[in-house]
Amino acid sequence: MRIMDRCFSAAALFVMSCVQAFAGGDADPAFGTGGITIVDFTPITGAPGNVTNASTSVDAQGRTWGAVAVVGTSGNGIGLTRLTRNGQLDTSFGSGGRVFIPAHFGTVASLVGIRTGLGLAFVAWTEDGIAIGSAWQACLLTESGGFDPGFFGGGCSTAVQPVTAVARDVQISPFNGNLWMVGSMPTPGSGFPEPVIAEFDLNATVVRTASFETPGVFLDPMAGAVDANGTFYFTGAYTGADYNTNVALDFVRDDGGVLTLWPRGAIPFDVDAYGLNLSSKADIGRCIVAPADGSILIGASVQSGYDGIYWASARLIDSLLGPTLDPAYGTSGRTARMIATPGWGAAADERAIHGCFQSHDGELNMVGTYQFTDIYSQQNNQSVATYRLFANGSPDYYFGGQFSAPGVFHSEAYDGAAFDYLRAAAEPQPRSDSGTSISPVPHTGLMIIGGVSRRTDGTAISDLAVMRLFTDTIFFSGFE
Q1: Using one digit for the tens of pLDDT, what is the confidence trace for 253-309?
Q2: Residue 239 falls inside a structural domain
Q3: 72-93 confidence digits (pLDDT tens)
Q4: Confidence (pTM)
């Protein structure tokens, strides 16, 4: 952690004044232990188990809600937790701050996400193994961690989808509080992926579902966002007839109870970065934000053909023809920057962006995991990467940086990027299936990072790890 202490003597007052500064990208020492909280679900699962697919969300009170898929002696299911503002287990939630939701017999539960907003808290997951299809589950949580019986008459609702349908994201609509889930399934016949949507209508207590065939195109949604008008946008992989993969932007509207797809096509990221011509291929986009100003922000990890890690973004604005790239953002509406130096390790497959949000100051904050080969041990290593961009698309050079990134033991970060492990010690690394998530802490310059970290005993057992970071340099002053 970078802590800068500057003290000076005020002779007339015979006191010493000290100013302590925490830079953007530093862990907040007021949260948990050294900025990190580890949640072990053993007390409610009966034994240590495999924890995957972490998701976190921060409510208006500053409390962190967390969810994971977990397996223990009680079977597989969903583990929930809630932390207080200072990162301690909230004992008013569930049993000592934890809840276990077992999957139905013969099924496997896969977490989609936990979301808070409008004074509501939802958790969504899927259960596969049911003969009739894939059950997309959505539940409204109470303050104590139970299910709200007023939600669809029992606290939970199910959107039954074809057995091949995979859910990838869940979002709360700021327009009416409805819950949206998005995923994909193979198109019958061609096998091309096509979007699958479910909308849980809170007012009518009905579920609307739809799948949209896109002939000749692979369209594989990975993340969604709902704007102030209730329009659901999603991004993912768009592969056309030329087999080049770009980032998709499409949206779905609820037209009088009918879900309608309004396709907008692909966003290529064939832009220059540091003098390098990037490939037009892009990894699946996992980041989309629909701000109140009507714009759309998208993040993606792009392939450079080099060992370095490049994260890209685009900003779109509304026009008569629909969303178009904003020429005032980056280069013609797009940016692509190296966030990790190749010389500090060869990049491996795991380099995708797993989540993002826009700060009140207009900055885009992205999180993912960075897997690389340690140049000293020649072993695979992994850390969490956080990247922050100014509103114009340039890296926030006050955040992280190559000489001051916290937790960097084997890699070097460029401006705007910070690396850390999800435990206080250098080992173990986050799991590659950590499902790392990022959330703003309302009305503060803080963010929450959630993921899954292996234990220090070297086993495959893992826990939920939650870290709170500063987004900007924060100064504290006092007298002693």
Answers
A1: 999 999 999 888 888 876 655 455 555 556 677 899 999 888 999 998 876 555 567
A2: no
A3: 776 789 999 999 999 999 999 9
A4: 0.89
Structural domain that includes position 333: 273-420
Which H, E and C letters describe the chain, residue by residue?
CCEEEEEEEECCCCEEEEEEEECECCECCCCCECCEEEECCHHHHCCCCCEEEEEEEECCCCCEEEEEEEEECCEEEEEEEEECCCCCECCCCCECCEEEEECCCCCEEEEEEEEEECCEEEEEEEEEEECCEEEEEEEEECCCCCECCCCCCCCEEEEEECCCCEEEEEEECCCCCCEEEEEEEECCCCCCEEEEEEEEECCCCEEEEEECCCCCCEEEEEEEEECCCCCEEEEEEEECCCCCEEEEEEEEEEECCEEEEEEEEEECCCCEECCEECCCCECCCCEEECCCCCCEEEEEEECCCCCCEEEEEEEEECCCCCCEECCCCCECCEEEEEEECHHHCCECCCCCEEEEEECCCCCEEEEEEEEEECCCCCCEEEEEEEEEECCCCCECCCEECCCCCCCCCCCCECECEEEECCCCCCCCCECCCCCCEEEEECCCCEEEEEEEEECCCCCCCEEEEEEEEECCCEEEEEEC
